[in-house]
Amino acid sequence: MKSKFTDASILLAGLATGLAALILTKMGNPANMGFCIACFLRDLAGAIGLHQAAKVQYLRPEIIGIVLGAFALSFIQKEWKPKAGSSPATRFLLGIVVVIGALAFLGCPLRMVIRLGGGDFNAITGLLGFIIGILIGVFFLQKGFSLNRAYPVAPAEGIVLPSLFAVLFLLFITVPAIFFLSTEGPGAKHAPVLASFVVALIVGALAQKARLCTVGGIRDFILFRDTRLLSGFVVILLTILIGNLALGSFKPGFPLQPISHSNHLWNLLGMILVGWASVMLGGCPFRQLVLSAEGNGDSMVTVLGMIVGAGLAHNFKLAGNPDSLNDAKEFVLGGLSNYGKVAVVACFFILLIVSVLNLPRKNAGQLAA
Predict the structure, then answer these.
(1) 10, 203, 218, 335: least CB-packed within 10 angstroms?
(2) Rounded-to-integer distance, Cα 217 and Cα 233, Å
(3) Which residues of 68-89 are buried (b: 16+ CB within 10 A; e: fewer)?
(4) Tell me, what's the pLDDT at 184?
């Protein structure tokens, strides 16, 4: 298929997303985490009491802004079309798997790109795993994998998640005391609320217009040699890399990167899960937020699954631990607890079962044989 690197909307969306990560980091968001969907859903889950990890609790305005920005533009452009019914329970489960994999790596695909642009070479392992996962997902797509089609639903169904997020944001700015909010750690590091919200509104609208998706870029290149979505991925990386070099924030290396671990095996396996499950879902975590804003009830279920998954990951100590220094200033390698390792392995079995069960009967039988 002919290359579409000249598509202005995807280039603009990639540029805006990269600039948003740089700006929000400069204004207070954690280093190399200016715009991370999985991390911010984790913080949101903590803020509403779904987990008790005190260092990662904050109602991130970025998540709400992305959804409301995409909702507004899709409505204006008459692209807001409520639909649902495409294997919602399976999508909820896959949402949980995506977040368990992302938190094993300590970041979603978007943060993987942000970490690369900041010099965190552990993200190279994550990128390799991400590509492997997408390749596995594409293999099953080519065998006929499908979660079946969605059907039009009542308009009330399509505004559930945007309305819920809007109410949460209103409560957050009027009565913040009802939320759990970190006083230290990543959850305590954040840009001003209004700035985060406005920046995310813009990014959400542009991402909706361009259909920006980190998974879709690599998937479409593998399947069709179409580089349109891949160009957005590249622009995000280049924007962050150039910005960090200009700001003096590019710090290359493996150990002791911000909220990162250099246990390469679990970085690799975590992002294989994210890539594989995201292909099955039809989009990365960022894309799921945008689709939910367009009235897609199945993506809303996926987002809720990701929020619940983040709560489970921290309540049951499944998430990765960053590299650190002990009291004697000795390096301590981060990674996963034994519980986290078991969870990651279990998620591979879950994805395999879901992949095979949703193949046409003929192809499923061939694989089983």
Answers:
(1) 335
(2) 7
(3) bbbbbbbbeeeebebbbebbbe
(4) 97
pTM metric for this prediction: 0.96
CA–CA distance, 285 with 117 (Å, rounded to integer): 19
295 burial type by CB count under 10 A (0-12 exposed, 13-18 middle, 19+ buried): buried
CA distance 165 to 111: 22
d(CA 347, CA 133): 13
Whose CA is closest to 162, among 90, 76, 66? 66
- Identify whether the C-beta of residue 315 lies closer than 8 Å to the C-beta of residue 95: no
Reported as a pLDDT band with limits 50, 70 and 90, residue 369 is low
Structure tokens at 227: 């580089």
Q: Which residues pair with 151 in a beta bridge?
A: 84
Mean of pLDDT values over 65-71: 98
Q: What is the pLDDT of residues 100-116, one digit of tens each?
A: 999 999 999 999 999 99
Calpha distance 67→73 (Å, rounded): 10
Q: What is the dihedral of CA 156, 157, 159, 164, to 10 degrees?
A: 110
Q: What is the DSSP string of 103-129?
A: HHHTS-HHHHHHHHHTTBTHHHHHHHH
- Asked whether residue 150 carries a pLDDT value surpassing 50, the answer given is yes
C-alpha 277: how far from chain center: 12
What residue spans define the domains of the chain?
8-368
Residue pair 222/228 in contact (Cβ under 8 Å)? The answer is: no
Residue with tokens 């998430």: 319
User: Which has more confidence, 132 or 368?
Assistant: 132
pLDDT at position 362:
75
Q: Is the separation of the CB atoms in 95 and 309 below 8 Å?
A: yes
**Residue 37 in contact with residue 108, Cβ under 8 Å?**
yes
Whether the pLDDT of residue 364 is over 70: the answer is no
Q: How many CB atoms lie within 10 A of CB 28?
A: 14
Using DSSP's 3-state secondary structure scheme, residue 331 falls into: strand
- Determine the residue type at 21: A
Residue 6 is predicted with a pLDDT of 46
Candidates 258, 300, 261, 314; CA nearest to 100 is 314
Q: Which residue has the tokens 């089609």?
A: 149
Phi, psi (degrees; rounded to nearest 5) at 252 = -70, 145
